[in-house]
Design goal:
Cofactor: a divalent metal cation
CATH superfamily: Survival protein SurE-like phosphatase/nucleotidase
CATH class: Alpha Beta
Keywords: Cytoplasm, Hydrolase, Metal-binding, Nucleotide-binding
Enzyme class: hydrolase
CATH topology: Stationary-phase Survival Protein Sure Homolog, Chain: A
Number of strands: 11
Radius of gyration: 19 Å
Number of domains: 1
Oligomer: single chain
InterPro entries: SurE, SurE-like_Pase/nucleotidase, SurE-like_sf
GO molecular function, one term: exopolyphosphatase activity
C-alpha cells in the first residue's frame, strides 16, 4: 500500500511523526509512506488553496517534502507532482494538535487536506488529538492516537463506506479523546456537533511600533454537545468517527424552499 500523509501543523510537528508511525504500520513492510506537508503551520486555513500564487516545494529527505502552502495544496502537490507516476492508495491528514470536532471542523486545515483528497477521488481520513486535563501532562500527549490510530485506520479502510452515490466522495474525520491510551473507552460513530455559545472572536493588541493588530481567539472546548455527537463522544472518553462529504447543501430544506420559491 502507498500512503500519502500531510497535516496543517507543519512538517516538523510532533503529530506528523505520530501519523508517520500509523501510516507505516498500515502500509506494512512492503508499502510506502510519502510525506508532503506545509513548510510552516497552516492551522485554521480550512480547504484553502493557493490559487493566486505559486507554491514552492522542497525535498527534505527520502519520500519527504515540504510545500509553502496549505494542506490542500500539499495533497495536490503529492498527487500531481511528487507521486504523479505512482499515486497513493489513501491519504491521511494529521495527527492534529487539538480536536477538529464540532464547529472546529469548518476551519480545520487537517480536514481540508482530507477533503481535497476525496475531491481527487481517493480514500482519505483526517485524524486529530483532543487536548485536555487527561493528557496534557502525559509524556506523549498523542498517546491515544499513537496506540489506537493504526487499528482504526485499517478498520475504516476495510469496512468503511467509501462511496460517492454519484456525487461527492465520503471521507472520515477521526478525533481521539484527551485521555491516556489505556483509558479510551472504545469508538463511537458520531455526527458533527456544535458547542452552544462557542465562537471564534478577535482580541486587539498594539505592537511596540504603535500599529494595531487582532489576534483570533477560540472558545472553551469542553462544552457538551449532546448524545451522538463527536465532541460529546470525546468528552466521554471515546474515539469519534464522523463520515463527511464536501457537500454544503442543506438537503432537509430543499422541498420547503421549492414550495416557497418555485
Amino acid at each position: 500500500m502507498r500512503i500519502l500523509i500531510t497535516n496543517d501543523d507543519g512538517i516538523n510537528a510532533a503529530g506528523l511523526s505520530v501519523l508517520e508511525a500509523i501510516a507505516e504500520a498500515v502500509a506494512g513492510p512492503q508499502g510506502e509512506v510519502w510525506t508532503v506537508a506545509p513548510a510552516f503551520e497552516q492551522s485554521g486555513v480550512g480547504h484553502c488553496i493557493s490559487y493566486t500564487h505559486p507554491t514552492m516545494i522542497a525535498k527534505m529527505g527520502e519520500r519527504r517534502y515540504a510545500a509553502e502552502g496549505s494542506p490542500a495544496d500539499c495533497v495536490m502537490a503529492g498527487l500531481h507532482d511528487v507521486m504523479k507516476d505512482a499515486p497513493p492508495d489513501v491519504v491521511l491528514s494529521g495527527v492534529n494538535r487539538g480536536n477538529n470536532a464540532g464547529e472546529n471542523a469548518l476551519y480545520s486545515g487537517t480536514i481540508g487536506g482530507a477533503m481535497e483528497a476525496a475531491l481527487q477521488g481517493l480514500p482519505a481520513i483526517a485524524l486529530s488529538q483532543f487536548y485536555g486535563p487527561g493528557n496534557v501532562g502525559l509524556e506523549n500527549q498523542f498517546e491515544a492516537a499513537a496506540v489506537h490510530g493504526a487499528a482504526l485506520v485499517r478498520d475504516l479502510l476495510e469496512r468503511g463506506d467509501w462511496g460517492s452515490n454519484g456525487g461527492y466522495r465520503t471521507f472520515y474525520n477521526v478525533n481521539f479523546p484527551a485521555v491516556p491510551a489505556a483509558e479510551v473507552r472504545g469508538r463511537r460513530v458520531a455526527i458533527q456537533g456544535m458547542r452552544p455559545g462557542v465562537r471564534f472572536t478577535v482580541e486587539p493588541t498594539k505592537a511596540p511600533s504603535g500599529r494595531r493588530f487582532l489576534w483570533v481567539r477560540g472558545g472553551p472546548q469542553d462544552v457538551e454537545t449532546g448524545p451522538g455527537t463527536d465532541v460529546q463522544a470525546n468528552l466521554d472518553g471515546y474515539i469519534a468517527v464522523t463520515p463527511m462529504r464536501a457537500d454544503l447543501t442543506a438537503h432537509d430544506r430543499i422541498e420547503a424552499l421549492k414550495a416557497a420559491l418555485e
